[in-house]
Amino acid sequence: MSDEPTEHIKKFVFNSKKTDTSTSPELIEILIPEKLAASYSFYTWPSAPILAWFLWEHRAELPGKHILELGAGTALPGILAAKCGAIVTLTESAVLPKSLQHIKRCCEVNGLTNNQVRITGLTWGLFLTSTFALGPIDLIIGSDCFYDPSVFEDIIVTVSFLLDTNPQARFLSVYQERSADWSIEHLLHKWKLRCEHIPINTLGSESGIDINELMHDHTIHLLEITKD
Ligand SMILES: C[S@@+](CC[C@H](N)C(=O)[O-])C[C@H]1O[C@@H](n2cnc3c(N)ncnc32)[C@H](O)[C@@H]1O
């Protein structure tokens, strides 16, 4: 018998009750293969659908935008953005080849090829040649990257570098509150970044989605981080 954790496919449906005939899609289904017994990156964390819904509600702004997802895991938000016409780069820790391979699988299951989505290793706080070759970025996205204080400064350092090279860009970060004692405020100050909380209480209402149901029992926040 194989020791490989069993894979199952989770379906996420993004729809709209709007009846206008704009060019934005009004229904997208995304299939995410997950392996529950594997590591962090093989499971879709509760923040990911929240970020995906936020992007869905702003889908008219996505076509042609260069989007970079950090710590993508199963990459639900990035895959949705690509389906809405963004030019997407999905990244994961460069030392997790199986996770990078799994992102490729998630893309393939959704009919996205190498031409439509780029997948590359990007380890927070580490500056490899590939980090300098990421190309232009309009929007950085990250779901549940701030999951452990030991990685907070590494993420902030990477985001600060990416925003230095793309000063017009912003970082949309959705995170699940795990401890009221955790804070990134001093790091934002140290790395000269500005942060705003974006309210998400009405997210999904356009589609008849109850945000509280989507969050289950978690407290989830959306931050927009830019250069100071
Ligand atoms: C809590 S999971 C969130 C995964 C996914 N974004 C989601 O919301 O479903 C954290 C992710 O960060 C990745 N990660 C952890 N440390 C990292 C690092 N130093 N550099 C880049 N990615 C890292 C993990 O592999 C994992 O995919």
TrEMBL record:
Single GO biological process annotation from the record: methylation
Methyltransferase recorded as keyword: yes
Coiled coil residues, start to end: none
Family annotation (InterPro entries): Methyltransf_16 (IPR019410), SAM-dependent_MTases_sf (IPR029063)
Gene3D superfamilies assigned to the protein according to its UniProt record, in alphabetical order: Vaccinia Virus protein VP39
GO cellular component terms given for this protein: cytoplasm; nucleus
Keyword annotations: Methyltransferase, S-adenosyl-L-methionine, Transferase
Keyword Nucleotide-binding: no
GO terms of molecular function: methyltransferase activity
Recorded family membership: Belongs to the methyltransferase superfamily. METTL23 family.
Name of protein: Methyltransferase-like protein 23
